[in-house]
């Protein structure tokens, strides 16, 4: 049995969970709050059963997931979407029911039936952890490492309410403002070179707004970019560029040193037109 | 020292605490002292946040600040979750511009903007070298393997084709 934490964008992991469950002949349980997405949709996305709970705050999930881990003997894996709050909840669950957990990995890029793994682009190695028999694996999966699930309206399943037992000793998760913060490795950065004119900078800002990303004018103070980055007109020498830990897309009007380290390099004289079309 | 730990330490130095204890792997602790920690505690480097937390000093801390470390074996957010639960401390997230009015007994995850934090205080270098730092080992059972080398691609075509490719890639990254 695989439980998918479907809050905070976690419904996007149902396709992956379905794939693992089908190969192992097990079930997929989707976990959501009362006010959250339509339960029927989660069934169409691959859940066999949807568990709903009337949570009041994020920290309530720690008790709910811990209870599931303790009481469901067939449970093999709990999948979370990788973000700051999911990882905090996952870490707290790990601490709460430590004896049942046999494998823990956050920000994973790969989940298979027998192993979970994450890669480190800049150091060039992959770290793998193997679940132990009769234990539960806690994994948070990076949003862009799994394809979006296919919505099949002919799928059927059931929905069940699970009561919220108010724990007395669970700490609160305080968020101010109460929005879910993005991890630096999930945040897309639109990085604009110093030689770019005001028009390019304005376009970059509009693209960042459209895709809920961060626009940053490049200065030497930027040392690391953790998430995916679209670098526009960064013509500096390699030694002067920041360290790019995520995927890098470079757009330049002429061949530049950054092209050598880019995952996707675009060299085109019509940068402004490309950006306008993106908006 | 990781960029995120530098950011967390720089932030701790701005909060005005009398005592800042740097907890970490021994090779980075002298740098931590030079960056503003008043004392240090060396711990083994673990590949698991629960095991890592077991080496934390047991004494009472008003606040525990953790760097985001999104590029490490486990993230700072996982360690923050483990420590918050095991020590029954509230969890807070801090990013530039947020209020610094944190509740007593809280675990604070400090977002790493990737920008360079304040530099080493050269007046502290001498005392950092005089401090006693115990060497500690590495613990874990993860398997490491060399990853396939990624090859970059150069996209050519007209502006319309390129923007379509880029839009698809950005949508995939952001989910928007």
Structural overview:
The complex is a heterodimer of chains A (279) and B (176). Chain A is of the alpha/beta class. Chain A has two domains: 2-161, Rossmann fold, CATH 3.40.50; 189-278, 3-Layer(aba) Sandwich (Rossmann fold), CATH 3.40.50.1220. Chain A is built from six helices and 18 strands. In chain A, the strands form four sheets. In chain A, strands 5-9-4-1-2-3-10 form a seven-stranded parallel beta sheet. In chain A, helix 5 packs parallel to helix 6. The radius of gyration of chain A is 21 Å and the shape is elongated. By secondary structure, chain B is α/β, with parallel strands linked by helices. Chain B is 35% helix and 19% strand. Chain B has six helices and nine strands; from the N terminus they run H-E-H-E-E-H-E-H-E-E-H-E-E-E-H. Chain B has helices spanning 3-14, 26-34, 49-54, 76-87, 125-130, 159-174, and strands at residues 21-24, 39-42, 45-46, 63-67, 90-94, 106-110, 138-139, 143-146, 153-155. Chain B has a three-stranded parallel beta sheet with strand order 4-6-5. In chain B, strands 1-2 form a two-stranded parallel ribbon. Chain B has a two-stranded parallel ribbon with strand order 3-7. Chain B is globular and about 60 Å long. The chains are: A alpha/beta (279), B alpha/beta (176). At the A-B interface, helix 4, strand 5, strand 8, strand 11 and strand 14 of A face helix 3, helix 4, strand 5, strand 8 and strand 9 of B.
């Amino acid at each position: 049995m695989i439980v998918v934490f479907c809050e905070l964008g976690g419904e996007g992991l149902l396709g992956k969970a379905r794939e693992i469950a089908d190969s192992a002949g097990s079930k997929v349980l989707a976990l959501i709050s009362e006010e959250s997405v339509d339960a029927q949709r989660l069934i169409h996305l691959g859940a066999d059963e949807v568990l709903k709970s009337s949570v009041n705050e994020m920290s309530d999930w720690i008790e709910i997931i811990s209870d599931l881990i303790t009481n469901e003997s067939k449970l093999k894996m709990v999948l979370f979407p990788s973000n700051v709050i999911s990882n905090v909840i996952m870490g707290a669950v790990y601490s709460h029911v430590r004896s049942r957990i046999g494998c823990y990995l956050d920000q994973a890029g790969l989940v298979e039936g027998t192993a979970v793994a994450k890669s480190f682009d800049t150091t060039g190695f992959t770290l793998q952890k193997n679940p132990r028999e009769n234990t539960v694996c806690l994994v948070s999966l990076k949003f862009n490492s799994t394809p979006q699930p296919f919505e099949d309206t002919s799928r059927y399943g059931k929905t069940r309410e699970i009561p919220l037992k108010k724990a007395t000793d669970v700490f609160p998760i305080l968020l101010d403002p109460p929005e879910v913060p993005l991890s630096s490795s999930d945040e897309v950065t639109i990085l604009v070179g110093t030689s770019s004119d005001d028009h390019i900078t304005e376009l970059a800002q509009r693209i960042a707004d459209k895709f809920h990303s961060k626009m940053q004018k490049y200065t030497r103070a930027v040392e690391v970019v953790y998430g995916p980055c679209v670098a526009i007109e960064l013509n500096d020498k390699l030694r002067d560029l920041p360290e790019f830990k995520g995927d890098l897309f470079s757009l330049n009007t002429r061949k530049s040193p950054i092209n050598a380290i880019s995952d996707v390099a675009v060299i085109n004289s019509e940068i402004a037109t490309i950006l306008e079309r993106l908006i | 020292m990781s960029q995120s730990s530098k950011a967390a330490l720089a932030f701790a130095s701005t909060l005005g605490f009398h005592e800042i204890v740097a907890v970490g792997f021994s090779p980075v602790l002298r740098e931590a002292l030079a960056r503003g920690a008043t004392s240090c505690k060396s711990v083994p480097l673990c590949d698991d946040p629960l095991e890592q937390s077991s080496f934390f000093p047991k004494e009472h801390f008003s606040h525990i600040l953790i760097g985001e470390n999104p590029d490490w074996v486990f993230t700072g957010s996982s360690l923050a979750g483990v420590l918050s639960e095991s020590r029954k401390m509230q969890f807070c997230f801090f990013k530039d511009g947020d209020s610094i009015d944190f509740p007593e007994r809280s675990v604070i995850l400090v977002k790493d903007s990737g920008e360079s934090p304040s530099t080493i205080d050269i007046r502290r270098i001498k005392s950092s070298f005089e401090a006693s730092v115990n060497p500690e080992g590495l613990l874990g059972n993860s398997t490491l393997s060399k990853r396939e080398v990624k090859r970059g691609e150069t996209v050519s075509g007209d502006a319309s084709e390129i923007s379509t490719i880029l839009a698809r890639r950005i949508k995939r990254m952001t989910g928007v």
